[in-house]
Amino acid sequence: MMRIDAHVHLFPPEIVPEIQKYTDKDPFMKLICSSPKQKYASVEDLLAVMEKDGVDKAAICGFASRDAGLCRLMNDYVLAAARQHPGRLLAMASVNPLDPGMEKEIQRCHEQGAAGVGELFPWGQMFGLEGPAAGKLASLCQERNLPLLLHINEDVGHYYAGKGDVSVKEAADFAGKYPALEIIYAHWGGGLFFYELMPELREQLQNVYYDTAASPFLYDKNIYRVAREIGILHKVLLGTDYPLIAPRRYLRELHAAGLTPEENALIEGENAHRLFFGPKTQ
Length: 282
Ligand SMILES: [Zn+2]
Description:
Helix content is 41%, strand content 12%. It contains 12 helices and 8 strands. It has helices at 19-23, 27-33, 43-53, 68-84, 102-111, 132-143, 168-177, 199-204, 215-218, 223-230, 247-255, 261-277; strands spanning 4-9, 57-61, 89-93, 116-120, 148-150, 183-185, 208-211, 236-237. The structure holds zinc ion (ZN). Residues 119, 151, 186-187, 213 line the site of zinc ion.
């Protein structure tokens, strides 16, 4: 079985000491970076934890800032890492949809081997999912068959740095507007997957995947069995949000949740493999 972590954040080590230069210009980034939970991981850190926890491949994101220059530095870092570790790392492009250079940056990253775009933060980067910038982003990703990883969080529950107010309704509407776009909604889509019990939402969310990022901080492990009952296990991707939480903690929960080994394998890698390497329909 191939194990794929679909949601990891790396940070170029040379940027960490001068992070304040950037956070002064980006309040969202400042919020995230000053959280006591914030950690920075390099390629080497990630490869070590993958080795230790038995992860074969990881989709690596930088941090999508409002500053296009910083996004480019993040992209250079993850693109180089993916080039140096082909078969092991997949680069995800960080862009700011409100930046006029978004199209060029997606093109540049795609040409250099990016496998997707994200994780983007509609709330933190201040682009509404209903607006023209998100529409442009959707068509660019769709044209290039690049899966789009978007941060969506639950609308209820405890506060944490980075928790925004983009609703599951906005997420559902966005998916409905761009039905051919492959979307990964992070953090179980903020609970959006529940509504796949409604036939019209199941249809509307056909190309939506959900990752498990931060699940141990948010949900009881029974969420995996709930996902099975809803009938969406073929759309759930192991995503760790590493360095926030290491893979082993997810695997421990998943393996204690009561799914079959075949069902675990879907979440641990088969779904992500199909998404990133499977034949494209268009
Ligand atoms: Zn997120």
